[in-house]
């Protein structure tokens, strides 16, 4: 009962942003900026499970950001706070986009919300929507039972499918070529990957 109420509260945009701040998300997402600094202007970047659109704040100028999420309250916050919001209320397993139309697909803390079937569908959809040479950017908290702060966060997280680094890397390599891989820890341990179609 308590967790259900907590999850409902956290789906409200500003509460979600506060919870992400307390969980260290700004420090984690700051790791993305160096990877994106050389992105040329004009790129179309799809932020799958983008929530309130934090990714837009770390993108280079001139990139077009589309925030795709299933939760309307989060997208409403994105529409209210973003400079040039483009939002899609949609499912990442059925992206309403043309094939080979996107330069970069970002999946920030999304994988652990998807079961194996959904994750396979989402990676297939990412492959379909990306242009040849397009990039998949994945930043995902890892299942590491030795890290007690991470265990505490997993106990309240809505994501019911945490995975190890090996599982995530294997999944990505099933369709893409990994060109960057790193692991680091803030509260959770994280994997940060860039893969090319």
> What is the class in the CATH system?
Alpha Beta
CATH superfamily: Vaccinia Virus protein VP39
Helices, by number, come to 8
Helix content: 25-40%
Query: In terms of structural class, how would the helical and strand content be classed?
Result: alpha/beta
Overall pLDDT = 85
Number of domains: 1
Strand tally:
7
Separation of termini? 43 Å
What series of H and E elements makes up the topology? HHHHEEHEEHEHHEE
Question: What's the shape?
Answer: globular
Radius of gyration: 16 Å
CATH topology name, in short, is Rossmann fold
CATH architecture: 3-Layer(aba) Sandwich
Beta percentage is: 25-35%
Main sheet characteristics? 7 strands, mixed
List keywords for this structure.
single chain, 7-stranded mixed β-sheet, 26% strand, Rossmann fold, globular, 8 helices, 7 strands, 197 residues, 36% helix, alpha/beta
Explain what you see:
The protein has 197 residues and is α/β, with parallel strands linked by helices. The protein has one domain: 3-Layer(aba) Sandwich (Rossmann fold), CATH 3.40.50.150. 36% of the residues lie in helices and 26% in strands. The chain is built from 8 helices and 7 strands; from the N terminus they run H-H-H-H-E-E-H-E-E-H-E-H-H-E-E. It has a 7-stranded mixed beta sheet, sandwiched between helices. Helix 6 (116-129) links the parallel strand 4 (102-108) and strand 5 (130-142). The mean pLDDT is 85.
């Amino acid at each position: 009962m308590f967790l259900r109420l907590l999850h409902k509260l956290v789906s409200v945009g500003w509460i979600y942003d506060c919870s992400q701040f307390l969980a260290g998300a700004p420090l984690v997402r700051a790791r993305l900026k160096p990877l994106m600094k050389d992105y040329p202007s004009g790129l179309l970047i799809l932020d799958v499970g983008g929530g309130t659109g934090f990714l837009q704040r770390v993108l280079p100028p001139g990139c077009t950001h589309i925030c795709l999420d299933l939760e309307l309250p989060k997208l409403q916050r994105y529409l209210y706070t973003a400079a040039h919001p483009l939002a899609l209320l949609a499912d990442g397993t059925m992206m309403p986009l043309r094939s080979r139309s996107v330069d970069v697909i970002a999946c920030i803390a999304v994988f652990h919300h998807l079961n194996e079937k959904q994750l396979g569908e989402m990676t297939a959809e990412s492959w379909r929507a990306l242009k040849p040479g397009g990039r998949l950017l994945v930043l995902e908290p890892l299942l590491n039972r030795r890290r007690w702060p991470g265990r505490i966060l997993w106990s309240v997280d809505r994501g019911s499918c945490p995975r190890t680094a090996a599982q995530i890397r294997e999944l990505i390599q099933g369709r893409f070529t990994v060109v960057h891989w790193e692991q680091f820890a803030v509260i959770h341990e994280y994997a940060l990957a860039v893969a090319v179609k």
